Amino acid sequence: MIIPRPAQLTELPGRFTIGPVLHLAPGPGAEPAAELLAGYLGTGRARGTIGPAITLRLVPYPDLDPEGYHLEVHPGGVQLAAPTLDGLRNGVQTLRQLLPAAALDPKTAPADAWWWPSVSIRDRPRLRWRGLLLDTSRHFMPLPYLRQTLDRMALHKLNVLHLHLTDDQGWRIEVAGWPLLTEIGAWRTTATGALHGGYYTARELRELVGYAAERGITIIPEFDTPGHARAALAAYPQLGNRPLQRLPVWNEWGISDDIFAVSDLALDFCRQVLDAVMDVFPSRRIHIGGDECPTVAWEHSPTARRRAADLGLSSVSGLHHWFLAQLHDHLAANGRRTMSWDETGHSPGHLPIDVALTAWRDAAHGAAAVARGHQVVMTPHTATYFDYPQRDTPDEPPGQPDGTVTLEQVHAFDALGGGLHPTDPAGDEPGVLGVQGGLWTEYVPTLAHADYLLYPRLCALADRAWATGPVPYDDFLVRLRVHRDRLRALGADAGGPRLVC
Q1: What percent of the chain is predicted at pLDDT more than 70?
Q2: Residue 314 CB-density burial (10 A; 0-12 exposed, 13-18 middle, 19+ buried)
Q3: 374 with 477, same domain?
């Protein structure tokens, strides 16, 4: 009854009882995974070397995926082996799910009666990129909730958190030398007159990166440019196309016409922001947005028209890809890889081929990007966006209009549909990096509402991202009935209650 479903699982007779003294025996290099497991089993347990051991070892299995693992649980001991630390961490999450559901409740004291059933598991993922986007700009999410979400992601063997940090409605990361970004850009007055906002310090984000890394999760930061810039322009109007006009942080949804100017000042600002982002986030990839960028402000800007003419562009709309290419070059010069939303790469030759694209419009756009030579993360809004309502019923909380995304739709989505092939995120070959769910927060005013939208749909996405071979929806539902007890123990009440927002 594990989610995501293991590749191979054999039930065996007996059980391994976890006594009051924890006998952990990590091999060289396996210590971080052992400490992660010890934390899940309760920091109050005594540690010792008496009794049956829980052994964790790094073993160079030539026939096992780097994130795969081999787990043997018997009454006389537990052996977890994997070729990499990430593989061991995935095995730890399986051990976590094999515990009684109550053991997942962080408020539950360690019990001597906890046990694991005897099993033999040989497991590996289908896709290397198994992610979730969280939009912290439209509604700020405090750090304890982000840590809680990372821990829940790890339980489901998800390994990428795409953190959307800037947008029209809020700026969430401090940048040295630009204090008004957080003094002004991080706050907005809502339609009811209330003040909403917040931001993360560099120290807080570094600690979050470390917390994620301990669980095998990479955080991909997103600084959205050149559109979705209203919060930054509210702080520093000189970065925009109306430098003398003071704008408030936007308190509407949709797409603002206020975008960054194509001036040297604006470009230098964006490079400084990327420097600050790279200083905090060690991820190989940095997301620069690039989506939903109306160019009407450039059409009325003498600076933009002059820049387009100097570059030999037929219209200012061509400045969009030029702007993104400048930031791509800056990231490349610093040894990082650029990510952007898929709409920026519809026409061949506009974006460098090594820009990885997040395909949000539909899977066909993602397939077209792969055909042009890009690496792609599949995240079509019709199947993986959790801000859409789950049901078309009168008591469903408000969400993105014009559609629903049901649990069955999420589970049915195949990121490799149509004959697409996976590719390794560590390499350069075109193909599908993986799949990602998304929670945009225009219609998510509370953390309880966020949980309602995420679970159990995130479980369905994780099941398809990991599990190899056919995964019938009915089989998933059977496992979900048991898995819901785990979610409730973690504070994520799957499927309800109905929320009034």
Answers
A1: 96
A2: exposed
A3: yes
Whether residue 52 is found in the same domain as residue 25: yes
Question: At residue 145, does pLDDT exceed 90?
Answer: yes
- Catalytic residue IDs: 292
Angle between helices 31-40 and 85-98 (to 10 degrees): 20
Closest to 470 in 3D by CA, of 423, 411, 419:
411
Compute the average pLDDT of residues 450-469: 96
Whole-angstrom distance, CA of residue 308 vs CA of residue 317: 9
Q: What is the mean pLDDT of residues 175-198?
A: 96
Greatest distance between any 2 Cα atoms in the chain? 77
Q: Do 363 and 476 belong to one domain?
A: yes
Structure tokens at 495: 């499927």
Its domain, for residue 13, covers 8-123
Mean pLDDT confidence for 260-285? 98
The string of DSSP letters for 199-243 reads -B-HHHHHHHHHHHHHTT-EEEEEEEESSS-HHHHHH-GGGBS-T
434 and 375 in a single domain? The answer is yes
Residue 398 or residue 494, greater confidence: 398
Both 149 and 23 in one domain: the answer is: no
When divided into structural domains, the chain yields a total of 2
| Other beta carbons less than 10 A from residue 402's beta carbon | 5
Q: Is 238 within the bounds of a domain?
A: no
Rg (CA), the chain: 24
CATH code at position 26: 3.30.379.10
Residues 368 and 429 in one domain: yes
Instruction: For residue 123, give both structure tokens.
Output: 């497991």
| Cα 268 from chain centroid (whole Å) | 28
Same domain, yes or no: 416 and 501: yes
pLDDT tier, 402 (very low <50, low <70, confident <90, very high otherwise): confident
Same domain, 40 and 149: no
Do 305 and 316 form a contact (C-beta atoms < 8 A)?
yes
Q: What would the mean pLDDT of 466-495 be, rounded to a whole number?
A: 90
